[in-house]
Write a structure and sequence with these properties.
Elements lengths: L1 E7 L2 H10 L4 H8 L3 H8 L7 H11 L3 H4 E7 L10
Helix pairs in contact: 2-3
GO molecular function, one term: DNA binding
InterPro entries: Cro/C1-type_HTH, Lambda_DNA-bd_dom_sf
Pfam families: HTH_3
Length: 85
């Protein structure tokens, strides 16, 4: 099974764009209604945002989701653990 996740294309550009608006990462997070730690993890590539959060980030910067994020396909292991009786 393959799933698609979103990753930030250019984290430094987002940081610069926020600074041009007079904002820091925590300010951006607060403006779009997410935790600053979560926003930081998304920017640093540690977490992948869901579609709603990605849209909020893109809207904040006046961009499209595709301008900020790229898609990564991730294969999930589909093996089930056997139940031992």
């Amino acid at each position: 099974m393959t799933t698609t996740k979103l990753k930030v294309k250019n984290p430094q550009e987002l940081i610069r764009a926020a600074r041009r608006k007079g904002k820091y990462n925590k300010d951006v997070a607060n403006c779009i209604g997410i935790a600053p730690a979560y926003y930081s993890s998304v920017i640093n590539g540690k977490l992948c945002p869901g579609p709603n959060t990605a849209e909020k980030i893109a809207d904040f910067f006046g961009k499209k989701i595709d301008d900020i994020f790229f898609e990564v396909s991730v294969k999930k292991n589909t093996t089930q653990k056997e139940k031992v009786s």
